[in-house]
Amino acid sequence: MQELLERRQGLHRSVLIVDDEFIEREMLGAMLQDLYTVIYAENGMRALEIIRRDKLTLSLIILDLHMPELDGYSLLKIIRSDSELRRIPVIMLTSEKSAEVESLRLGAADFITKPYDAPDVVRARVGHSIELAEDSIIIHETERDELTGLFNKEFFLEYGRRLDDQNGHMPMDALVLDINRFHIVNELYGKDYGDLILQRIGDSIHALVRKTGGLACRSGSNTFGIYLPHSADLMEKLPKYLGEINDSMGDSKICLRMGVFADDGSKLDMDQRFDRAYLASRKLRSSYVTSYSFYSAELHNKELHAERLINDMDRALSEKQFKVFYQPKYSISGDKPRLSSAEALIRWFHPEFGMINPNGFISLFENNGLIQRLDRYVWNEAAAQIRQWWEKYGLYIPISVNVSRVDVFNPLLGEILRDITVRNGLENENLLLEITESAYSDQSQEIINSVSKLRKQGFKIEMDDFGNGYSSLNMLTSLPVDALKLDMQFIKNINESKKACRLIGIMIEIARLLEVPVIAEGVETHTQMELLKEYGCDIIQGYYFSKPLSPEDFEKLIEAETKEAKHADNG
Ligand code: C2E
Ligand code: CA
Ligand code: CA
Asked: Is pTM, for the whole model, over 0.85?
């Protein structure tokens, strides 16, 4: 009874009752109408019309044996021999014992005897037949996933849409369940074990939807879709659901992730709900514990925006929407700060979104390799700029460019850079390469080899964000670098704590040990500058001196600087 009550909140299936006697139809209908959408037909011919019309949505047919024109047996035979109709289970209404055997022989799923049993018994038989039919391979084999017996994705979506239509689009929740790093399970323990895990999860999901009156599928090799009638307390139920699935796996090392779209009143299609659930699950990709995440519109908009930027990138490159800005670096070892070099920093002037800072797109492009094209563009621009300023002012102002970790793995990196310097008539040492410290820690030996090669070619390497990565002290001594660039975070805290100050002192010591200069970036105040100078820092970059500037604005700096230098010479 409890189960029936729970089912009442589930998706309504539709049931066709075929009986020529009005009273009989109504009595049976009354027992079922709370649980199902009930359709009536008063004779076999009319029934056949309805069955043909609703063949995709009918979940069950209840058929009286004795009717004028087309009787129950004949109709049953027609249904059973028609490949499009035979998936629909049929329950025969009989009053004779002898007819029961014949009905079953002809392929009826069950029979209900007249006069009717208690309503609960009738309901149980009807429910059971529907369940059995949905679970069985009478439904085309292609509609099922062989391993788990759950629906496959296409049928799941098709069937779910039909049920949605039929249920007046009642509120539904969509859940996507994934096994994190499943390929590793397969690799470590073999495919048979992997299959076993999938089967156990399948069984457990089966049990879940049976209880909630939902639907489920295996939608990918290790992904499951679960479509449930909306529950307001889903947030409380989820840990229980996940716990049950987890327990059934019997392997605590394997972790699951679940993305959830909870019905929010927006009348979405089933596939849109699942797209959103999937989006939510992607957030958990790198999780090492079983966890779940709810879809949020904010997350969705962020993804859409990211998608948009990726799409716009090509056009932006050809239309020169990307501009390289230059932030000056000042040498502070003398009595007066002197312009020594610059860092090239990209900006995107997007026709719709205005200026976008690199934090808005760099990591996005790093994830899909687009960064390599963008970086190349910046390197070219920077090299051309060095050349142009040399021609205009007779000075080589070294410019550092950012080299992302993806670039470092490119075996052709050295040649690409060389090609750029040659085309612009530069020496390799004019182009400084900033490589973030965390890149070194990833696959250290490979990176170290690649960077050493660049240095042999004459490029100067600055280790960016130093102190933020994970390089071991031990590794530091063998690092191929020409300068250390302190991570901005350290500078930020310098006023606040003695500890931060001492840390900076230590890092500068390390630089001394390696015999390379230290660059501090993110310097915003005079106090910070003075402190750093005291500690022996060589070069400063930060808002204290200047923000990153357009080439035109940077030229004003060069002009002021050269004027001053001349003045000093004359004086
Ligand atoms: P980064 O390489 O650490 O660059 C320094 C960032 O700090 C720049 O941010 C710069 O504008 C900012 N900055 C400089 N001085 C100050 C200061 O005094 N205070 C504060 N709060 N910030 C300061 P930006 O230009 O937004 O660039 C952010 C990051 O994007 C860069 O960090 C770099 O990792 C990356 N990036 C920028 N351009 C490129 C590029 O062309 N290629 C690649 N791969 N990455 C780039
Ligand atoms: Ca940098
Ligand atoms: Ca940095």
From this structure: no
